[in-house]
Amino acid sequence: MKMKKEILKITFIACAALVLTSCGDDYLVEEPTGDELNIRQLGEAAQVNPEIPGAFMTGVYSTMFTAGTGGTTSQADLGQKGYDIYSDMISGDVALTTSTYGWYRAAITQLQAPQDFTLNENYHVWRYYYRVINRANLVIETVLGEPQPEEETELMAIISELSDANRHIAAQAFVMRAHSYFNLTQFMINDVTASWTSPTLPLYLRAGIVGNPKSTTEEVYNAMEEDLSRAIPLLADFARPSKVEVDQSIAQTILGYVLASRKDRWSDVVDITDDALASTSASLMQADNSINGILGGFNDVNSTGWMWGIDINADIGLGLVSWWGQMDAFSYSYAAVGDNKAMDLDLYESMRPDDVRRDQYFDNPSSARHLQPLFKFYDSDRVIFGSSQIVKADYIYMRYAEPLLLNIEALAKDGREGEAKTALENFVSARGMDPSYISALNGQALQDEIYKQTRLELWGEGRSYFALKRNEGTVVRGANHLSFVGEAMQWNDERLTFEIPQQEIQDNTNISDQN
């Protein structure tokens, strides 16, 4: 706790003292700030005092859990976990089963936002991820003492002269920039491969710049791969002080997601996820209700299954406007009092009888809480509509099962079915199942089973949407949804992809001219 208070204090001091950074601003819709002289002065200061770029990097991470970072006061505008909710609902795996207060009802579950660029949900996604990108760019420029050079050899020459602390900070900023661009490619591009040479997203590799035209999908992917491939070796000797910071294994996993979304680099995905599994200290969560178990509430960052997350406490001050405030019935939450979220009925019924993950959900068809995740995600108090308005349960961003399941998927799609089957058998055994059925699966049937296991394992964690697009799946909502029940929607249906928001089109003439 003391470390967190110190980090937050450093961030405040840096933001207050260095007006240039204006930590609350979004540079993509404001006038650019700073100039080469200021950046050079920041770089010189950073070499003397590494707490300065460290504080700026903490600001990047704080964006992930801060309300309003999508540019509005909406109670769905709550940072990275808010977009995990968006993606899980659009994929159909999270069902809104009752809607008293209306959050997510029209724009997300009725898919109005992806069809109407004036709705704020498009703006949330766009503003949030470009805000993170710009802050990461500011970190990079602060560490380098100048804007990022275009030539890789020149950039690496500068990095080679940095202290270990500043080298690690720059690497983390590269990872966070790539992470944001990856999310944008999934949320904002209908079909990555079909639009490979088409202009799709503006690319910003320098801070404080506004109004870039769209780059092609290929150019955005090249930038992501360069950022991650550069960061991975730079993080080889990084021992992070807490799980809020990205490390080498997280960078490797994100690169795995990037390559997998291309659908043509499966051997590379196998290799990089192998590396991620080898370099992380995390392990597969157990089939029990301990802190390290899949029935343990997913509320403690110290779980050995978590690779990336944040210790939420009273100092951070999250309340109703939070992931827990929207998803968990054992919190002061909408999920407790009338905006119930549950597992898709058909997905639940697809689970085998001996799958221990069935126990994560409240199975009572006569109850309005049917299939709510009462035994997967829960506040430690375990009181429906808990009395405390302060969230104290932690946020998970990534866990060991992600690179593991992505590795199994890549093995199967790379034609290495024997290895994929063995790994899948081990995984389902760890979830209490008799693995004998796996041996009969081949080809598409094997890939479909891996896809299903990914959805079951990572339900509610913001990964189903990415898996839907990778596997070119079909969304068919079960009977416990409030809309589109039984209607088949393909992975590249335009209703499943957000639009460039009205605000950006109005402010950025280079984009409006391209449309």
Automatic annotation (TrEMBL):
It is found in: Cell outer membrane. Keywords: Cell outer membrane, Membrane, Signal. Residues 115-239 form the SusD-like N-terminal domain. Residues 374-512 form the RagB/SusD domain. InterPro entries: SusD-like_N, SusD_RagB_dom, TPR-like_helical_dom_sf. Pfam families: SusD-like_3, SusD_RagB. SUPFAM superfamilies: TPR-like. Belongs to the SusD family. This is RagB/SusD family nutrient uptake outer membrane protein. It comes from Psychroflexus lacisalsi.
